[in-house]
Amino acid sequence: MTYRAGIIGTGGIAGMGILGMHDEEQIGTEKIEASHAGGYESAEGIELVAVADIEEAKLDTFGEAWEIPAERRYVGHEAMLDAEDLDVVSVCTPSYLHGEHTIDAARSAADPDLIWCEKPIASQVGTAEEMIDVCEETGTELLVNHSFRFTTKLQRLAESIHEEDLLGEVRSVTAQYRMELLRNSTHVLDTLVYLLDARAESVSGYVSGENEAVESLDADIEVDDAAGGGHVVMDDGTFVTVDCTIPRDVSSMLFSFVGTEGKLYMNNDDGEWRYWSLEDGEHVERDMPGIEGSWTWEEDYQEAFANAAAHLVDVLDGDAENASPGIEARRSLEIIIAFYLSHYTGGRVEIPLARPLRDVTVTSW
Asked: What Cα–Cα distance (Å) separates residue 164 from each residue in 33, 129, 291, 350?
């Protein structure tokens, strides 16, 4: 059986290419491997058959690049969801539309078994919770594309931490990445909650107001999303420091974990992972078990979409559990929204957020 997939939104992550990651002449003119469409093309057992967008010019450009027949290029997501019988729907629209498009897809005549939603899950926690609830009601798997979860090295590292006690009880984490909080930091924070298998308990945040994506994306709208960070206490007691205030051109994605049995340094931009085992009161550098080299954008990120699409097939076949469910994607969003709440109120924010605070929206793309 070959599963049928459709994409809502024909932007960069759908398959057109992204400024800052691809050369300008590539964008919209060739197939981009690190994308939803690229994942579908790489994976066996699934095929991209339809696409929807509100802009006909973008729709046709995408359709030509990815060889989607004209009759299966739909103006507006409703038209595609009404006309097509789909097993999977990708939601690749701006983050503030993820809720609407995910809920519409889950309740539609297309009747997908799985929705592959771009990160972050939503722009407000209340919307994320509604998405989770509706997908549960309709029997639809909600899988959020926090792409690092679909890289082999990070999966192996998570296994070593969770099942082999690589670090013991993690006590402290430092995480650093480039601005902005919602658009970029969702990767860092999802990696954090994935490796710790924990949820934030209290948050103290700072927001600088700086946003370099406005210029780089040539955006014609103002958004709230900005550089920032803060301190997070997780429900397992881990103390976390997050700094996402750094411009792209000088930033690195860094993590430092300190546990009762060892410590770990991860630099995903410079390709350096180092591990020290705590032995008789001294830290001794060792090779990480089962991992050769370190995570890199050039290798690991490029394979993430193909791996994710293959995982979709396994989930649909009943051979795997959802590795990036909406309920876990909510964990990183809670921290980001809490950073903003803490900054603008001058106080500490407790998680889960109180009911009125779940509807606070941070606009982004």
From this structure: 33, 32, 14, 31
Encoding tokens for residue 78? 């409703």
- Enumerate domains of the chain plus CATH numbers: 3-145 (3.40.50.720), 151-293 (3.30.360.10)
In 146-297, which ranges are continuous DSSP H helix?
152-163, 185-196, 213-216
Tokens of 45: 């057992």
Sign of CA dihedral 128, 304, 306, 48: positive
Residues of the chain short of pLDDT 50, as ranges, are 22
Of the CA atoms within 13 Å of residue 238, those in its CB half-sphere come to: 26
Q: Whose CA is closest to 264, among 253, 280, 282, 276? A: 276
DSSP assignment of 140-173 equals -EEEEE-GGGGSHHHHHHHHHHHHS-SSSSEEEE
Q: How many CB atoms lie within 10 A of CB 269?
A: 14
What is the per-residue pLDDT for 253? 94
- Residue 290, token pair as written in the block: 């089962």
Residue 115: burial class (beta carbons within 10 Å; 0-12, 13-18, 19+): buried
CA distance 68 to 90: 15
Largest CA distance in the chain: 68
Tokens for 169?
Answer: 């009880």
CB 140 within 8 A of CB 322: no
Buried b (16+ CB within 10 A) or exposed e, 317-351: eeeeebbbbbebbbbbbbbbbbbbbbbeeeeebeb
